[in-house]
Amino acid sequence: MWNGIKYCVCRWKKHVSGQRHKTNTYIVLVACDVNYYKMNHFLKLPEGCISTILSLTTPADAARSSVICKGFNSAAESDVLWERFLHQHEVIISRSTSPPICTTKKELFLRLSSHSHILLDRGNLSFSLDRWSGKKCFMVAPRALSIALVENPQHWEWTTRPESRFSELAILKSVQWLDIRGKIGTQMLSLGTKYAAYLVFKLLNDTYGIKTLNAKVRIVNHANENEAVKQATNVYIPSMSRFFVKNKTDPLYEKYAKIRGDGWMEVQLGDFYNKEGDDEEVEARCMEIERLHNKSGLIVEGIEFRPQQ
Questions:
Q1: Using CA atoms, how far apart are residues 213 and 163, in angstroms rounded to an integer?
Q2: How far apart are CA 203 and CA 72, in angstroms?
Q3: Phi, psi of 171, deg, nearest 5
Q4: CA-to-CA separations, 256 to 96, 108, 126, 200, 278, in angstroms, rounded
Q5: Three-class DSSP category at 20
Q6: Looking at residue 190, what DSSP letter applies?
Q7: How far apart are CA 236 and CA 255, in angstroms?
Q8: What is the pLDDT of residues 62-83, one digit of tens each?
Q9: Could you report the per-residue pLDDT of 206-243, keeping only the tens digit for each?
Q10: CB 179: neighbour CB atoms within 10 A?
């Protein structure tokens, strides 16, 4: 059976040479080219073998395969295939107080990857999947962040908002020393993946003093905190959307805040590569601890760790 799989994959790779997906997986769709279909290599294999081959692609490619080639329908809908894209989801979902109820693995994948999420650890962490790669995404809630002076009601206020995924948000009233940190263990993330960390936020109408912040992402046991502060780079939070950098080829594009699809804003704090088998802790930090002027009007939704596109 495995020799058959290897044979078909080799023929498949030869057939689609030069037509690679941007994530370096082979595009399923071209396997249903008319001339190749006549060779009938895939459709002679058991459904489980076809599912295994499709699992070597991306979730998006696997979903497209059943649209283009009816012979792939059963394999492309199978729990065997979508289980591979879910990356040990049972362990993570068991930490949710309200786990999603789904009848198939594909339904669960779509539930977690279609601009949706589930809350873990008593609502202090949200979990979702990247819809294209199936890799894990997490957002750390404000209550689980380390925010300087957050328990002082003169400086910060805890509140609720209907558009938030979390039960409480932190609103900056007035501080001079702004320091926000979020941590996550690398074992929770997808291995062999480049991740980026983002501060997710909104601004009040009377926001002031936070147009420029310093940001740094570090592996805690590999980078000294003082050195990390020295190496921090500037990120920019324009007060109005017309000042955003919209050209992705602009060198400053990654340094400027952007509006997300869910209505919040985000700014990238840095990135890191999550190696295979590493068991480390990553800290993402944004701060303004040098220019000690008043700062106000920042609404903190959380710090998100997700695969970098």
A1: 25
A2: 48
A3: -110, 125
A4: 33, 34, 24, 13, 31
A5: strand
A6: P
A7: 6
A8: 877 766 666 677 777 788 788 8
A9: 898 998 999 999 988 877 788 888 888 999 887 655 45
A10: 17
